[in-house]
Design goal:
By secondary structure, the protein is mostly beta strands. It is 4% helix and 39% strand. This is Galactose-binding domain-like protein.
């Protein structure tokens, strides 16, 4: 499928703020197999942190690289790695290929293919692969951003195959798209509609200096402060930091969880949660939108899961369905996860 290369600013605005990295290790994405990883392991492709360089460090096989690197002189057209998505399945819009520190040994070209394999199965020789990112050139030691010209794929996939022609190295691989949720049949079932696997996406924020907003919606409670959302220290009265989340479906909220796990000296002083029933991201981001407070300003605690329910009298005004939620930190700080438990409304 034809793609275009865009810069990081465009990619952040058009892709990262609207879609999820569906293969990230934070979601449970994992490498299933690869053709070769002689110099550096393919699993490094999915590491959440930026690649690093340790010049002068060598392993038994050669120079150490924080990425995936294969042997020279590949007799086949391409080296490949197969990755299982971290969500049930997804439609794909674009990708990032980072060749950081691979200079002279970077992959000259790549493409990406997708496949859907029935539950409990794995790709094999009979698996039908479809091209989702056309073959495109890669430069040395740089972040490169590619977007499909036709938008999201019509089909959805649970496995992808990254091919590099003919061999070489890639530091990181991010693949963005929209998860295809597997919702319970019964609308009375309460689920986390902000979760990535439900299709939740953090679309905008005031600041993400130390930790990015996509971390708020991933599984688990994380491993340290590095996989949460954290802002700079504010220096003037009245400051508030905020993030807006598009829910994976329209729903009536029954419980809100704001988790400050690992944030022990830099948690927010107070927390506020608002909601709105908007039809698009543009509407939700408009200055004309009327947000409804559902959790008024609440004192926050360090390293703690704050739960707000209708029954405790704190969660209020949630008798109507909503599609977006706004979480505010007063005045600043860090939050690990946001959960919005709700009943879907068709």
């Amino acid at each position: 499928m034809p793609v275009i290369a865009i810069d990081q600013v465009q990619f952040d605005a058009q892709v990262r703020s609207r879609y999820s990295d569906v293969i990230g290790s934070k979601l449970g994405g994992k490498v299933i197999s690869c053709s070769d990883e002689f110099f550096a392991e393919a699993s490094n492709l999915l590491a959440p942190k930026p690649p690093i360089r340790d010049k002068g460090r060598y392993t038994y096989n050669g120079a150490w690289y924080d990425g995936w690197e294969t042997r020279r002189h590949n007799p086949e057209p391409a080296d490949w790695v197969i990755i299982k998505l971290g969500v049930a399945s997804a439609r794909i819009i674009g990708c990032e290929i980072d060749t950081a520190f691979f200079d002279g040994n970077q992959a000259p070209e790549i493409d990406v293919e997708g496949a859907f394999v029935p539950e409990d199965g794995v790709p094999d020789a009979n698996t039908k692969w479809s091209v989702i990112i056309d073959k495109t050139s890669c430069g040395p030691s740089q972040r490169q951003f590619f977007v499909r010209t036709d938008g999201l794929t019509e089909d959805f996939y649970n496995y992808v195959r990254l091919n590099m022609y003919p061999d070489g190295g890639i530091a990181r691989f991010r693949l963005y798209g929209t998860p295809v949720p597997v919702f319970p049949t019964a609308l009375s079932t309460v689920i986390d509609l902000a979760h990535v696997s439900s299709g939740g996406v953090a679309i905008a924020c005031s600041d993400e200096h130390f930790g990015t907003i996509d971390n708020l919606l991933v599984p688990g409670r994380g491993i340290d402060m590095g996989d949460g959302w954290e802002t700079t220290r504010s220096r003037y009265p009245g400051h508030e930091d905020w993030v807006i989340v598009r829910l994976g479906a329209r729903g009536i909220i029954e419980k809100v969880v704001v988790d400050t796990a690992f944030f022990r000296g830099n948690f927010p002083d107070k927390i506020r949660v608002e909601a709105v029933d908007a039809s698009s991201d543009a509407d939700a981001l408009s200055s004309e939108i009327n947000w409804k407070v559902i959790v008024p300003d609440q004192k926050a605690k360090p390293d703690f899961e704050h739960e707000y329910r209708v029954s405790d009298g704190v969660l209020t005004g949630v008798d109507e369905p909503v599609t977006y939620v706004k979480l505010s930190m007063i005045p600043d700080g860090g939050i690990k996860r946001l959960r919005i438990f709700a009943r879907r409304v068709l």
